[in-house]
Structures are given as C-alpha cells and as structure tokens.
Here is the input.
Amino acid sequence: MTEREAGSLRHLPAVAAVLATAQATQLQERHGRLATTDAIRQVIDEARELLRASKAAAPGADELAQRAGAVLDGRQAGLRPLFNLTGTVLHTNLGRAVLAEAAIDAAVAAMRHAVALEYDLADGERGERDDHLRELLCGLTGAQDATVVNNNAAAVLLCLNTFALGREAVVSRGELIEIGGAFRMPDIMTRAGAHMVEVGTTNRTHPADYRNALHADTGIVLKVHTSNYRIQGVTAEVAAAELAAIADAAGVPLLNDLGSGSLVDLSRYGLAREPTVREAVAEGARLVTFSGDKLLGGPQAGFIVGDRELIDRINRNPLKRALRVDKLRLAAIEATLRLYRDPDRLAERLPTLRVLARHKGDIEAQAHRLLASMAGRLGEAFTVEVGDCLSQVGSGALPLDTLASAALLIRSRGSQRRLDALAAALRALPRPVIGRIADGALWLDLRCLAEADEAPLLASLAQLDVEGMATHAP
Here is the structure.
C-alpha cells in the first residue's frame, strides 16, 4: 500500500462518525439502528475497496450516510404492492387472486385478536379448525363433508397417500398434466406412495380401459380436469358420471381433481363455462379437489369435499396436520365462501369475478382517460396509443378462452433497448408497474386496474426517470 493510499484510508470516517450525522439519525428512525449500521458498514467497505483501487478522495460522513440511505431504499420488501397490467388476471407469479375486502377484514381481525381456532365455544372443549368451513363448503357443493389444506396439490397428494399408499392409482394417459414450475401429476403420485397405472392413449381413453385396469390392488381412480390445455381432434374421454359408476362397481373411490374449480356457473357473467364443484359431486365422484386462489377468488388453499367416511379417513392421515392452514387463511377463506351465499351481489364483492366480467368498453374508456397523462410523462422518446388486446384468466384456467380488453401501447422512437429500459424502470418503481413486451411494444393491459387505482398509477409513473433511460438506452 502506498503512502497516498494509506492517507486516504485514514480519512475514511468510522461507523460511529457516520451514525452521528443527521441523515443517519433519520435512517435509524425509518429502518432501525441495526439495519442502518449494517448499511453504513457496507458502504464504508465499498469505499475502502474503491480507495485501494484509485486515487480518489475519501468520502465524508454525510456522503456515506447518503449512500447508506440508497442501500436501505434498495432493500424494499419483495412482497410490496404492484400494478398487474400484464393482461393475466390470475397471474401465478403475481399472487393470483386479489382478496375481497371481507376476506381482508377477517384476516386482519384474526391477526389482532385471539380466535376460537380449535376451541368449541358451546361446550368449552377442544374443537376442530375444519368446523369453521365445513358447513359452508357442504352447503355450496352438496357434499357430505369437507376439509381444507394448503393448496390443491396438497389436496391431491393427501387423497392419494390416504387411499393409494403402496397400491395402484389409475389415471388416463391424456390427463397426466404438468402445470407451472414443472409440477407434474406423475411426480405427485410417486411422492404420495401410489403406483401409477396409465390407461388409454394421449387422445383417447374408453370405459373398457378403466375396467380392465381395476383389480384388488387398485386404491383409487383419478380423473384430472385438464384446466391448462385442451386435446383437440380425434379424442375420447370417459365422462365423470360414467367413470364414477365404473369405480363404484369395483369398490374403488373416484377422485375428481378439478384444479382451479368454480363454485358458480361462470357463463352467467359472460365467461366460458367451467364444470362446477357441485356438478362434480352430483356426478358421483366420492372425492373432489379444487383450489381456493384461482376461479374461487380466495386465498391459497386446497379443498377436498366428498363422502363423510372418506373425508374422515383423510383427516386421520398424519400428513393432514403437516398440510393444514393457519388462522389467517381460515378467516379469509370463511369470509370468501360466505360471499357465495349471495350470488346476486357476488360480482360486486369478489375482485376476481369483477375483473373477469369487466366489459371492454369500460376498459377502453379508462385507457383514453390515462392516455394524455401517460404520453406527457414519457415525452418525445416514446409514442403512446390505445389499442385492442386480449386478456386471459391465467393460472391454468380456461386456457383457450380470452377476454376482449384494451391497453396502452408504448413504442420507442429509438431502439428496442430503450423500450426494455422503460419496462425495467417500471418494474423498479416503489410500486412496480408490470406489463408485457410483444410485437415491438410495451402493452399495459388495464383489465386489472381499478378506477380507484388510476391516480396511484399516475403518481407512480411520475417517479420515472425518463431522461436517464434515454441516456443509458439510446
């Protein structure tokens, strides 16, 4: 180390000196002493390495405090709110369903207070947490009994492990689904301890294929709703009602996995029709599984409804405790399910259904309201116009059906890199804005933007550094 380098390092303020600055005092009030001290140590270490590599002067305490503030601001919570303008309503990577206000209020109340989670208020004895949902689920689906676990994958896993551990589980080859994150039904069956028996072919499965596969070592028959793809052309599948009769004749339960699941007929809201849980129960499946955070519009959960005897066996499985949900989700689920008891006002109160049922004309009018402000904020570097687009449900639901929508289309007057830089800058905002780039434009589909969020969106856009983008991405 040269004498000049040593001198520069000696002028580098100590942690205590930086902590004594007015800005560091403010940082401690916002972030706490521990986090602030950690950030100051980080920027001092970085400054020390820079001084060893150059002849720059040592930064002062105030400058180091400012750098520490930038570090702390960069450590924003990853689960902070954002604007979903992707055009995918139930976006798995963005948290799927937005909860109803009633569900939010119920979860907050459960956080603030002690609740009778597993306590029977009538007799003062220990109760069951499933009791909070059983009556609601049975009333909405027509099932004899019901239970709830962490998500639908857990629901399927628990059913398979309960009835097919060390035994065979029969499933059509055309229903061996893979969903997001490389989740595959065969892998779940293996982890559940079941021996998978494939019947039929990819595109055609017949009743005889099931009958020929059923014998004394069969533990369960599995039917999987192919919610995230469709096989078209020359096809054949065994309807759930017929398959239930085949399974019953062999003394084997049928598990009908609906995946996203719906408690209402979506066609009454102008959407494509999906099989409802009540219909699946009525068709004779002794067990039906479905999700809570997809078409149902609630928090993440997996529901199992069906015969009381089978649900009782599931609840005695030790895995049930490992897969159960906590009081916060139970409270939110209960509040969400109660909304379904008033179907006439369901679309008003359930955000998922309200967004899915939005008319294109309303979205287009919103786009025109925002157009001038967006164009003015982005300046001459970009063009902005209103365009038609197609939204999708997402999370594997209704894969072939789209929803007519409207978007703000942003194009760069310069290179594609400038458009990429804009998308990155939008993602970096304190409340990120997430769109999608396609056909040389950044599409901001407004289907999921509530009218009340228009002003907050414009406030977020006001923080964009458009000149900086133009400089770094010509």
Q: What stands out?
A: Residues 33-53 form the longest helix (21 residues).
